[in-house]
Design brief:
Blueprint: H1 2-6, E1 13-17, E2 20-23, H2 24-41, H3 46-65, H4 68-89, H5 109-136, H6 147-165, H7 171-188, H8 193-221
Antiparallel strand pairs: 1-2
């Protein structure tokens, strides 16, 4: 049992490149993350099952790295993942395509403006809360690292996931912002594999938009 839990410790090293160490936990998170996004790009429901495990791995990784905002988002992300799982597989009649799955749709211009305003507001509020965690609960949290950047990533991830749960084509724009920011954040915190993962996600987001856009055109024209 002790050996099992050691996998969740960032001190359990799998690979080392010079002074940079790659933990088993980070490597596992990388594998599950890439698999999850690849399946999402293909609009496969299986991505949700992989996503549950990915959330658990990221929670353990971010807690030990002091990225508390990214850590705290994981339980919420888990719930959104479950919501999306249900929405994709149980659409209303007017939302279903010919395969009885949720259709891909777009946000309205008004919805996009509201989303941007909420994103900025929540980033400031959540960033402040994160800076206070070490004061409110010093026995549990140390000083937060890059709190406002971390908060922006967290809020944008939740936004992207909510859009994905509703199968909105706009989700890939949100994921593009997440991945560009994450590359910066992970490099600044000394993670080795995760920046490459985010770079891979960025490429997948581009392909994801292309694939989903093609499906969107087919579904709206009835040529699926």
């Amino acid at each position: 049992m002790t050996d099992f839990f050691s996998f969740f410790n960032i001190d359990t090293v799998l690979l080392q490149f010079g002074e940079q160490k790659v933990s088993v936990l980070e490597a596992l998170a990388t594998l599950f993350g890439l698999t999850c996004v690849f399946l999402a790009v293909r609009a496969k429901v299986l991505n949700f099952w992989i996503g549950y495990a990915y959330n658990i791995l990221l929670f353990a990784l971010f807690f030990q790295k002091g990225l508390y905002s990214s850590m705290l988002v994981q339980p919420v992300s888990f719930i959104i993942n479950a919501f999306g799982h249900y929405r994709w597989t149980h659409p209303r009649k007017d939302e279903a395509n010919r395969r009885h799955e949720l259709k891909i749709t777009l946000l309205t211009a008004q919805q996009r403006i509201l989303m941007v305003v909420m994103l900025g507001t929540l980033t400031v509020v959540w960033g402040f809360i994160i800076t206070q965690l070490s004061t409110w609960m010093p026995w549990l949290f140390g000083n937060a690292q890059l709190p406002y950047l971390d908060a922006f990533v967290m809020i944008t991830i939740l936004t992207a996931q909510l859009l994905s749960a509703q199968k909105k084509l706009d989700t890939w724009g949100a994921w593009t912002m997440v991945n560009i920011t994450n590359i910066t954040l992970y490099l600044m915190r000394g993670l080795v594999f995760m920046p490459f993962v985010s770079a891979s996600y960025l490429l997948m987001a581009i392909f994801g938009f292309k694939i989903w856009h093609g499906k969107y055109i087919k579904e709206t024209t009835g040529n699926e």
